[in-house]
Amino acid sequence: MAAGGTPGNVKLGAGRLYYAPLGTTEPTNCSTALPSAWIAVGYTENGTSIDTAITSEDIEVAEELDPIDNVNTKRVTTLTLEMAETTKKRLLLALGGGASYADDSTPFEMPAIDAIVGVMMVWDSLDTPDATNRRVLIRNAKPSGTISQARRKAPQKQTIPATFACTKNSSGSAALKWFPNSSGLV
């Protein structure tokens, strides 16, 4: 029995993640290459996950057993990844050092908690964007959660796991913007 779906709408692949300083010009479509201000995050252990949790509350009255309504009270979006390239710039990204950094060999300390800097992020489904690319813009991604650097016996590798809270930008635009490809795939 056929499921009634379209096999071409099922997509595979981890895609590519890029970051840039807050306030960088946003992309306007998904088929144009990103300008040089966007830096590739590089290899990851398991790709990128964008998760949105919506919290809602029931509206109840004494005269009814069932809620008479349900209202959304909160929406939290996070981006998680595990960077496989354990360089200074990637650790600083995970710690809140922002998109700018000195050379990779200069010693550094963690940013002060009140000096943590968010970044803009873009996820692309293709290395070289065209009309079939899918893109997600994250307007403000700030480090959140635990960064654990485990050093293990081979063949396991050291990684930099990172979680980013995705929020509206300073002008109040939504946290995420999706750019479907020419077939409407996201």
Say how many strands there are: 8
Helical content class: under 10%
Mean pLDDT: 92
* Element-by-element helix/strand order: EEEEHEEEE
* Rg from Cα: 20 Å
Discrete helix count = 1
Low-confidence runs: none
Assign an overall shape.
Answer: globular
Strand content: 25-35%
- SSE-based structural type: mainly beta
Q: What's the N-to-C terminus distance?
A: 27 Å
Tell me about the biggest sheet?
8 strands, antiparallel
Q: Can you walk me through this structure?
A:
It is built from one helix and eight strands; from the N terminus they run E-E-E-E-H-E-E-E-E. The chain is mainly beta and 186 residues long. The protein starts with 15 loop residues before the first strand and ends in a 7-residue tail after the last strand.
What are the SSEs and their pairings?
Layout: E1 16-21, E2 39-40, E3 44-59, E4 69-83, H1 88-95, E5 119-124, E6 135-143, E7 160-166, E8 176-179
Jot down its keywords.
186 residues, mainly beta, eight-stranded antiparallel sheet, 35% strand
